[in-house]
Specification:
213 residues, 5-stranded mixed beta sheet, 7 strands, elongated
């Protein structure tokens, strides 16, 4: 994986695509949180970094955990026809995030429970426009833009249509990052896994044995 040697608090990014295997992304995410306690994981639908304008391009830390998709190309075409990949893959991103959160709770050691429950991952959601984020799909010169505006005016349209392409970015982390809310992200509290009565009883017994030693 790229950026594997980055600091423990540096976010690792995964770009969700139409052709990647969801199981690969989930497996990678679980290993990531097992290895790094303070390092966030960012999953997004932004285009590959090569499509980003030079002045806003950041260090590429994307990890495309690719694999063959279980659905055939025809099935994908029906679902995403007419949509930009950054928009078409948003439902897939949401599904991957929900699976990661659910499976992460299953991996937690009951011995870490406080008050009979285990806390999951913090989630921060951001939605934006790829052009505003600095990703340039195509160059439009002034003359072409002027002709398009003129054509719109001749058709009796006062407002030139603006084509916006949405993307979604989700940050998952074991510890809260309040500053993400300050930049417009919405926050979802960690899911809670409550231990059964028998599990709580075993935990109390285990704790008592530790105190007796």
């Amino acid at each position: 994986m790229e950026n594997a040697e980055a600091g423990s608090s540096t976010a690792h990014e995964i770009r969700i695509t139409n052709h990647g295997k969801m199981t690969n992304w989930v497996t990678f995410a679980l290993e990531h949180f097992k290895k790094y306690e303070e390092r966030p994981l960012v999953l997004h639908t932004l285009p590959a970094a090569k499509g980003k304008s030079p002045e806003t391009r950041a260090e590429d830390t994307n990890a495309d955990v690719d694999g063959a998709s279980s659905a055939g190309p025809k099935a994908k075409a029906k679902k995403t026809e007419g949509l930009h990949p950054s928009m078409a893959t948003i439902p897939r991103l949401v599904s991957v995030v929900e699976i990661i959160k659910r499976e992460y709770l299953k991996t937690l050691d009951p011995g870490l429970a406080e008050r009979g429950s285990l806390s999951g991952l913090h989630q921060y959601n951001e939605i934006g426009d790829i052009m505003e984020a600095g990703y340039v799909e195509r160059e439009v010169d002034a003359e072409e833009e002027r002709l398009e505006s003129l054509a719109q005016a001749l058709q009796g349209r006062n407002h030139v249509r603006q084509n916006k392409i949405a993307f979604m970015r989700v940050t998952l982390c074991r510890k809260a990052i309040p500053e993400l809310i300050g930049r417009g992200a919405t926050y979802q509290e960690p899911a809670v896994r409550k231990l059964s009565k028998s599990a709580r009883a075993r935990l109390k017994k285990k704790l008592r044995k530790g105190e007796d030693k």
